[in-house]
Every structure is written in structure tokens, then in C-alpha cells.
Amino acid sequence: MKELILLLTLLFALHTNANTDPHISVLGQLPKVSDVQVSPDGKNILFLNAVNGKNWITITSVKQGEMAPKYMEVGTGTLRDVEWLSAKHVWFSGTATHYSKADNDTFTLARSGVLNIDTMKVYWPFNTNRYRYNISAPKLLNKLADQPNKVAMSYYYSGVGQSAGNVYTVHIIDLEEEEREDIFKKSDSRNAHLDSKGNLISYQRWDGKQNVYVTYVLDKESDDFVELQDESGEALFDYNITGFDKKTNSIYYYDLNDDQTYIVKKAPLEGNKVGVPTVIAEQQGLDVDYTVKNYHSSDINGYVYIDDYPESYFFDDELNRIQQGLKATFSNASVRITAYTPDKQILTIAVSGDDYPNEYYIYNRKQKSLDYLMQGYEVKDRAQLGNVAKFTYTASDDTEIQSYVTIPAKVSDNKLPLIVLPHGGPESRTDMSFDWLRQFYALNGFVVFEPNFRGSSGYGKNFTTSGYGQWGKAMQQDVYDGVNAVIDKYNIDNNRVCIVGASYGGYVAMMAAIEKPKLFKCAVSFGGVSSLANLMMHSENQKNSISYWEKSIGDYSNKEELMKFSPQDIVKANSSPMLLIHGAKDTVVEPGQSKAMHNKLLEKGVKESKHIEIDGADHWFSKPETRTRFLQESITFINKYI
Question: Peptidase S9 prolyl oligopeptidase catalytic domain: which residues (predicted)?
């Protein structure tokens, strides 16, 4: 194991990035390593590697000398996910932007392939004209434990005639022969499930008459698919199935608890009817975030919920004991088992928190060793990192809001400046896992406040839906109330407050600079929304439904109401200075939104504002040069005003 650690140290020593600001040099880069996973045979380690603006898949042996490190570099695209399919096959996905002349628009396209680590050649299962213009990537459905070197995937293509719209397809992929078998296709369908032998056992299809997705299950007697009914046998079962247990002929599905938090239930199948369910995953006051699959069989094996950190629970007793032991070792951090051998003797572990800048370990239970492997962010002195703490406050309408406050490691008796950092989404949330942006501002001496305002996810359906229709209203007020609570609680200089946000967070920042210029002395937006109508129109142009945005924001046809809560339509002459940064290849929020906002500011006489469009940058800080530029520009702008 020491040999592996030495090899990885030498590997990363070959790659350096010079920058005059040491904090930008470290935190302005993508994580040097991510998605570290041990192979099914326990011989190799797989991870995504990002250094000096390039990203690639790296495979190295656990024991030095067994195999020289191997690399697959990605050109202009960005690697997103990676996973072992077998001891010699790796599934990966990535994204790249593409300009469509026919649509006169730029799209972010996702693609996936299979890497053979023996030959280092890639097999593209869907590299045909039928799937050429798809926007999203294929989905890995099942690793087919009873079919060695075969996996199941789903995809879609645009239909014609009676099959107009998207046709959902399911396939068996032979990894060795590099062949694709098409086993299912239906229009307006989704969410297929297969058994470990590759047999289709359920899927959902949209029923326009009933306005619902109907679940179909395989009836053993007729060998045909029938509509799944609820316990009464008189109504359709319309819950979201997350998995099947073939041993007990049961389904796992999401439901709502009495407190309206999302839980997981397990229920037996009785013909085409669902039997009496049992709650198998719940957490008081918090949603089950997602279910966890067995790394080798794709069977449901646990779940994750997010409290202050993502917390994992396994139904497998042995794995759960391992998880709880690791959690005790790394108490103030997120601890995640990323992969393990079938006998659970060798595991790779991801640890993240303010003391752990995305670290990875390998746990060998036979040797009783837990060894450090690599670190995503090369923070040399962890003592310099800010200390993150939960902060609960009450909004002006008595709604309780959870948030996090980060205090710089080095503080004086003087009052401290404050950075307000609302998250994007808005249907997402922040937690206490390591965050590069939070820590960058803390390292520069700022207290950082991150509210999980109403509309955030993870705290139950009612809390999330209470944010619907509240852009610029109650969600915005939650941020203002939180800032006032932080000023009252902590040693904050209320004349030195700036707000920074990306996407929806950028919207919040712009609104704050317009509505509360005395409180917020400046605002920084990255890819922020300045026109609600434009966001919805652009979503349509990107081949997406706007039904979610109509729930979240409001009626698309009511342009007058949308303008009342769009920063570019309500900007004032006394608005605080704004730094508006946007990626030129942002396909979520059009780059023109920041340009239009800047022009409106100049028209109103807010001459201190600044607009920057970064060539090649997308919506997600996917490139190190984007992060570096953002950090450099934002800290210079903030220091100028507070």
C-alpha cells in the first residue's frame, strides 16, 4: 500500500499550476482527483483526474509493478461520471457543447462509452445516426449479476409517424463482443427495470387520457405486461418505483410520510396488485435523497439522506457496520463508500468536510489497514480552512430556516466582513461537505453565510413547494432575514456585506443589490437569471418542458407579472455595484441575460458595475480557467467595495 501512495504522490508532483494567489492556485482548480473506485477484483484503482486544464480517466494498480498507470484523456469535453462494469471495463460519461445550425442555438450534449482497460480502446454502444442528436446520455440500468460481461442500458430516439415524440429503448450491452441487443422500445415510456438475467420486468408509459404515467409489470401467468394496481386493486399504482427484489418478488418505491418527507417503502407484488408495504427508509424531518444500489448487482442496498452531511445507511448488515465504523473514524465529515470488492474486503472511501478537502482512502479489511490515497484539493495547511457550523434562524413569517455559517480560521477582535452565498436551483440545498467557493472566501477573511431558504430540497415536500411562485418574494426575504440574524449573532461589520451567487443564486444576488443597496454594498453573479421570461423561453428552445418552471416561477403567459420580479426590468439608479460574469457556452441561462442586465445598469447610471463573458465557459464552473477567472475577478471586486 505504501508503494501505491508513493506512486500517486509522484504522479501528481509532475503536474503543477503556478498562480500568484495560493488560494486561487488550489481552489481555482478542478479537484485533482474524484470518483476514486477499486476494481471488482481488487487489483486496480480508477479515478477521474483533472490537472492543468485537462481531464482524463486514470487506472493504476493497487500493488506497485502489477500494471503501469494508464490514462484516457478527454479533449474538449468534460468528464462527469465513471464506474467499473467489470474488472476490465469502465463506463464513463461526459459533456460537450454543440452549436446546432438548424436550431440556431447551443446545446450541452452528454455522451457515454465503455473503456477496455486492457486495450485502452473505447466502445461507443450508441454511436449511430439514430442517437446522434440526443441531448442526454444513456442510462446504466443494471449490471446483470447473472450475465457476466453484460449490462443493461436505456436510451431514446425521436420517433416518426404514430411514434412521434421520444421512443424509449432498452438494450443489453455485451462488453466483450462490443455488441448491442435491442430488447424493448415504446414511445412516451421510461423507468424500466430488469432482473439480473436481463429480462424486462417493469416499465412506465404515459397515459394521456388519465394524465399519469402507468406502471406495467410482467405477469408470470400470461407472460405479458399488465397495469400495476394499488393495494385496493381498484386504482392505478402511480408511485415512483426505485427497484425490485426478485428474491421476495417485491418493489421499492418512494412515498410521503405523515410529515410530508420522502421515504422509501417495500411492498410485495401479488399478481398485478401491490401488497401491504413496509417503511424501510425514513429520517425524521428530512427526505430520503436517493437509494443506493449494490455495486455489483444493481440491487437496492441502502439509502442516503442529507442532514449536515450526506449520511449513508445500508440494508446489508456487514456493509452497514463498515459504514458506521468509518463514520466514527471521520466524525465531522461526509463518509461515502465509493466501491468495494464482492467479498467486501477491499473498499475505497470518500471523505469530505472542512477538515477533509475531498480525500480518498483505501480500506483493506484483511490487512486491517485504512490508508490515505489522494486529495481532491491540495490544501497544505488544513488549519487555515474556515470552520463551518449549522445556524438556525426564524424568518419574518416564523418559518424555521436551516443554514451554515463559516468563520475564518484567523479572526481578530475587529468586526468581520460578510459574504452571503445563496445556492442555485432553487430546488437544491447546501450542507457541510467541503466547498471550494465557501473556503476561498473564508481564507480571504470573510464570514460566509449560506441559507437553505424555503424552496430548498431535502426538508420535505411542503418546505420545497412553499418556494413555488416565490422568486423575488418569500424565498428572497428568507435571505434578508438570515443576513440580519447572522449580523445579530456574530461579530459582523454590517457596512461590509456583499452577496455572491451562481444561477438562481445569481438571481438572488442581483435582486438583493436592487432591493437592499444599503445592506448589500455589492453583488457578484455567475450565470445569473436577470429575466424570468427569458429563462422559460430558453428552456423551451433547449427542447425542455417549461412545466417545472411554471410551478417554480409562475405563469409563462403573464409577462407583466414576470417582469415585476426580473432584475433587469426593475433595476434602480441606487442599485449596488454588480459584477456580472457569464460563460459564453452557458446553455441553461443565456449569456445575453448578464449582458442585458449590465446595459440596464449603465442606463440607470450604475457605472461601477462590470460585465465579463468568459470564452468556453459553461453553466457549472466545469473548467479550471473559469473558476480561476471568477475567483480573481470576484475577490478584486468585493475588496473594492467592502
Answer: 433-641
